[in-house]
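Batch job 17 of 40 flagged for manual review because the log was empty.
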Amino acid sequence: MKLTTLTTAAALMATTALADIETRAVTFENEGATLAGTLYLPDGHSGAPLPTVVVTGAWTSVQEQMPANYAREMAERGFAAFTFDFRGWGKSGDLPQHDRFVESPEAKTSDIRAAFAFVATLPEVDASQVHGLGICASAGYMVDAVAGNPLVNRLGLVAPWLQNAEIVETVYGGAAGVASLIDVSRQAEAAGGQIIPAAGPEGAEGVLMPIGGYYYDADRGAIPEYDDKWNNAGWEGWLTYHPADNPQRLDKPLAVVHSESAAIPQGVRSFLGGFTGDATMQWLEDVTQFDFYDNPEDVERAAETVADHFHAAR
């Protein structure tokens, strides 16, 4: 692997003048469902096809949250950008059996592939310059959707949640905790689903994330568009999904932005340790996982790194 490590000082120098952007609501199809998306364009674009970035966000998220923040950053840097709601979330249609709020790596990866195929048909898009940007949980899905995909040129990951079995056990209460959650998942699936709140205050019971912060704060991620739901039937698929173990499948140049203060940095190190392609790694200091979602300075620094990576494809 050829690894380029950028310094924090270099990232602190990144500045971008704010610019107006245009947005257009669109829909596309995947596996019998209609998905809702948004195309972001630089203000005053000439109509010529643009290099384009498909942006996906953290688990349980909708496109108006962190994907929109990064899509705007990409548009301000001269790209078209595309966000969308996964099946079963936001304004998109259901998963099979009318399921919703299931964190399904398989289904979400399929949706990302369909998004790439869709944007490549748009007249505003330069189909030879399409890139993927995955944030948090969708980083693994984006890797899977990009690997071996001739429609995609380069890949960027911001605050990626790249887990393996060891990390899963560390996060979810050891082998016994994981086994218990898988049992919850199977019972929920047998019952046709079991939906609980996704976010709650610190220490709350009966919610997915009893930690307060981004998803619970109305000034941050608790926006009206956010579903704030989690289907317990999704636990097994999530807990048995180990993207950190499969870096060798990725055949595209990669840029990663993360922080030791954010979630599971060990997953990034494990992934890069097995990646054989070209990689640019940017470690930022004292940036939390939620800061990567919406703190303007940190979003801008991360966006600058991945935009430079995408521009290098020209």
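Reviewer: the log was empty due to a logging misconfiguration, but the result itself is present. Residues 105 and 121 are 25 Å apart (CA to CA). Unflagging and moving on to job 18.
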